Amino acid sequence: MKGDSCKNPMDKNQLGEPLPSRNQTVGDTPELTTVAGAPVESNQDSMTSGRRGPLMLQDIWFLEKLAHFDREVIPERRMHAKGSGAFGTFTVTHDITSYTKAAIFSEIGKQTKMFARFSTVAGERGAADAERDIRGFALKFYTEEGNWDMVGNNTPVFFFRDPLKFPDLNHAVKRDPRTNMRSANTNWDFWTSLPEALLQVTIIMGDRGLPSSFRHMHGFSSHAYSLINKNNERVWVRFHFRSQQGIRNLTDQEAATVVGMDRESHQRDLYEAIEKGMFPKWKMYIQVMTEEQANSMKNNPFDLTKMWHKKDFPLIPVGEFELNKNPENYFADVEQAAFSPANVVPGISFSPDRMLQGRLFSYGDAHRYRLGVNHHQIPVNSPQGVKNYHSFHRDGQMRVDGNRGSQLHYEPNSYGNWKDQPQYALPVEKTGSTDILRYDFREDDSDYYTQPGKLFRAMTPDQQQVLFENTARNMGDSTLQIKHRHIYNCYQADPAYGEGVAKALEIDISTVDLNLPARTSREANYEANNKHPELNQPTMKKDSCREIDTNGDPCIEPENDPWLL
């Protein structure tokens, strides 16, 4: 027994002799420069006034080095702060095209590059790996239709079913505000106050609550998602990822030994396995539930605190992923990795799971705080598989991808840029007596002209003339198509309004198409906007030197103000 006390419990993972922890990689050009590219003459001694004098402000290398050091640590994740990651490949092994039109699953044998990050939940960035805790199981697939993020855990359920409790869980499992220590009392006070947490607590307190490595645990989407096929038919699914290395766990006693010997035990295990060519693999399965089955379920099928019974919803094989490449730089690829369940692709979508709905906002918002609004430009987060990437967003700190150049940055416009793609609309989803849809407000109320007409007629002739002149000046060198479009809109409100604007713009109103499609739907609105592209040519600015007296009654009392309809 005495000899066993020195045995490393991690030996059960059968990795063999440990690899050296040193890193001997050097750059292509080992000579040191500043960030501006200038040579650094000395990285050994600061510049001073005399041998024992003070530092000089002109020692720019000292200033740059210390200033960067002061800022090189970014905020850690609120949860899942300590983690490990690797790149790999997903391969389709079974046909599920009857359930989904997602291109990633389009044919057997198809391969997609991916990145995975595993983590503990409660611990900070420097916490030990071998702690009893949920493990994060986050996957990013670089598909040709965009990034698909599967942000799961190594358990199929969770503590609660309402995202309003997310901050409370964080506070309960992290450090006490007075002692700055983790407290079993606060942790268990929170858990036991939520009876729905018992299934998750039972899993964590069981032997699988402390995996011996990231390689030896299963993964789960936990949430229900939806798959949509080419016929726009929906089914509900849960994803499972089954470790092909088998399940191996640590006892609390073994974990105490591991932590004393190696706080980075799980990071070391994953890194060394890949370096040695022992590439870990997981098989992907789905459980499928039809909408009719979901509607007839006694329990809420979108309740994250409950599983779907495998006898009722058997696991259907889909594919397999293999992790086969370690990151060259941990910070660049693992620390800056940003996963969000909101990142889905055509053929994969969401469910009414309240926890999932809450995460759709929270994860992206956390990335914008932690990494910046342009975190999608970081290589590990960029949609590497997409050929025609055309994101709308502009500017923001650290925008370094050309910022979409000189492209128009608004929609709708007269040039067909930033077209939405209605062919990817989701099938109608019912919630009780209502449907979840992108309702076209024009179909409910397309009366755009009655009130502008009333306001125009409430104006005095002088005020109307001011309106015409101001409009003509402000439209500047807008194209003829845009000016015709505005004349049309004004004419619908009141013919005199349209005629007055046309005259001020020196446009013969008989040349204006006053029979454009009524804007009673989104499609009709697009048709009206894009009609007559032959008029898409610049015009001369209009000006007026006419002075019109616009002074009138002060209109203090609302009942006497003709402009208040």
TrEMBL record:
<feature type="region of interest" description="Disordered">
    <location>
        <begin position="1"/>
        <end position="51"/>
    </location>
</feature>
<dbReference type="GO" id="GO:0042542">
    <property type="term" value="P:response to hydrogen peroxide"/>
</dbReference>
<keyword id="KW-0376">Hydrogen peroxide</keyword>
<feature type="active site">
    <location>
        <position position="153"/>
    </location>
</feature>
<protein>
    <recommendedName>
        <fullName>Catalase</fullName>
        <ecNumber>1.11.1.6</ecNumber>
    </recommendedName>
</protein>
<dbReference type="GO" id="GO:0004096">
    <property type="term" value="F:catalase activity"/>
</dbReference>
<dbReference type="InterPro" id="IPR024708">
    <property type="entry name" value="Catalase_AS"/>
</dbReference>
<feature type="active site">
    <location>
        <position position="80"/>
    </location>
</feature>
<feature type="binding site" description="axial binding residue">
    <location>
        <position position="363"/>
    </location>
    <ligand>
        <name>heme</name>
    </ligand>
</feature>
<dbReference type="InterPro" id="IPR010582">
    <property type="entry name" value="Catalase_immune_responsive"/>
</dbReference>
<comment type="similarity">
    <text>Belongs to the catalase family.</text>
</comment>
<dbReference type="InterPro" id="IPR002226">
    <property type="entry name" value="Catalase_haem_BS"/>
</dbReference>
<dbReference type="InterPro" id="IPR024711">
    <property type="entry name" value="Catalase_clade1/3"/>
</dbReference>
<dbReference type="InterPro" id="IPR011614">
    <property type="entry name" value="Catalase_core"/>
</dbReference>
<dbReference type="InterPro" id="IPR020835">
    <property type="entry name" value="Catalase_sf"/>
</dbReference>
<keyword id="KW-0349">Heme</keyword>
<dbReference type="GO" id="GO:0020037">
    <property type="term" value="F:heme binding"/>
</dbReference>
<keyword id="KW-0479">Metal-binding</keyword>
<dbReference type="InterPro" id="IPR018028">
    <property type="entry name" value="Catalase"/>
</dbReference>
<dbReference type="Pfam" id="PF06628">
    <property type="entry name" value="Catalase-rel"/>
</dbReference>
<feature type="compositionally biased region" description="Basic and acidic residues">
    <location>
        <begin position="524"/>
        <end position="549"/>
    </location>
</feature>
<keyword id="KW-0408">Iron</keyword>
<dbReference type="Pfam" id="PF00199">
    <property type="entry name" value="Catalase"/>
</dbReference>
<feature type="domain" description="Catalase core">
    <location>
        <begin position="33"/>
        <end position="419"/>
    </location>
</feature>
<dbReference type="GO" id="GO:0005737">
    <property type="term" value="C:cytoplasm"/>
</dbReference>
<keyword id="KW-0575">Peroxidase</keyword>
<dbReference type="GO" id="GO:0046872">
    <property type="term" value="F:metal ion binding"/>
</dbReference>
<keyword id="KW-0560">Oxidoreductase</keyword>
<feature type="region of interest" description="Disordered">
    <location>
        <begin position="524"/>
        <end position="565"/>
    </location>
</feature>
<dbReference type="InterPro" id="IPR040333">
    <property type="entry name" value="Catalase_3"/>
</dbReference>
<dbReference type="GO" id="GO:0042744">
    <property type="term" value="P:hydrogen peroxide catabolic process"/>
</dbReference>
<feature type="compositionally biased region" description="Acidic residues">
    <location>
        <begin position="556"/>
        <end position="565"/>
    </location>
</feature>
